[in-house]
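Archive entry: two folds, one per protein. Generate the first.
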Amino acid sequence: MPEFQDRVLKCVDCSAEFIFTAGEQQFYHDKDFRNEPKRCKNCKSKRASAPGGDRGPRQFGHAGGKVETTATCSQCGRETTVPFRPTQGRPVFCRTCFQAQRATAAAAG
């Protein structure tokens, strides 16, 4: 188990120095977070309270709005819109085929 010591980091927004405490580092380690914080608490709370605020890794789109991407269904070939950016090599399904896939998987498992 690594030993953690308080570290001084620099905020990417305001350039102020802030302390990344040993306890916070332990939390990041326990949660298997790969990146250390980039913003001081003040800038982080400003971003979170702004319209479309920062929702961390699960944020939709760049400005907080949902992404709508046009794609072709991998099963039936119809054009559809999906609420995410498709990942190359992974199938994309229209609503009808997606629900059929889920029903099939639920019945099998």
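Generate the second and append.
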Amino acid sequence: MGRFEVTRRGFLVGGIALAGTAVLGSTVGVGSAGATESPAITDCAGWAARPNSEIVPVWNQRPVKILVHHTATPNGGDLSQGAGFSLSRSIQNFHMDSRGWLDTGQHFTISRGGFVMEGRHRSLEVLRGGTRQVEGAHCTGQNVVAVGIENEGTYIDTVPTGALWDSLRATCAYICTRYGIAPTELYGHRDFKNTACPGDALYGMLPRLRGEVAGLLGRNIEGGATRKASWPLLRPGDTGAVVTAAQYLLRDNGLTEVVPNGHYDAATSGAVLRYQYATGAENVGMIGGETWPVLARTVRSSEDGDAAKAVETLAARRGAERVPDVVTRPDWQRLLGTGGAPADVSVDPTGPPR
């Protein structure tokens, strides 16, 4: 990957780029948008963003995926544009004042009323260019290769509003068009971190989102391709064979005090926290897309330790399904019940030139 090119937008005051635009408070796009034109997106000046505290890094490469988040804020009833702008300001204040970041972490924000706003400065400008990527702060390890979209609300057991969904679909289609991203390369935050984000309900809608974005782009994709290979999210209180397999894998990684009893109990939670601390993962006590890939190592049929017992536990759960002699990441995902189409990080050759 090429190192970022540090660029400046607008004027400079003490080395800080101001949020200047050609027209103060401008909104890009009007009316209903097709796949090749931008939906209405209000830039940072339009919602009265603070200046970024440092220069925003811009990389000389295109992102290859989109990450969907939820804000984990209340599902409020105020669907006005003003409420959306207020949301953007509160997110920026939290990210800058509490997290110590240089600006808002995500590239774009969508309110429950369906209003789309630029998150981090320069994200809209750079997206429209189609050849570079603003470095975000929305997901560790993905900030240079993925566009982050925050969706207002909490979607554990509630689905987004129709207005939000329509704007999310249109925004994803536009991003795919500008960057040449395949419509199947849409993921949830939990695919890469130990988090419930973007909520069980919204995460469960991602196959539908991939299919609908493909439809806006005029592409036909097989139904199976809309389901991406992923990792299950395990939380304290969960039970079953998947928990047992995780417990065996924790033992395989040196935490031999864990009892493989199929209950995500306090002892298991404590072991998970210790393991995540040791591996540099976000230590929240859940096992998600950040911890599974390092926990589930390659296992050969000649082994008879705890990792092999994890494979046997999952194989027994799935009945007569054949287990390969060498179990690798795709095999683990299939055994865990979260197999699907592999990630395709290639850039669509029909996209804008690099």
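Annotation attached to the second fold: The CA atoms of residues 77 and 294 lie 41 Å apart. Residues 1-34, 345-354 have pLDDT under 50 and may be disordered.
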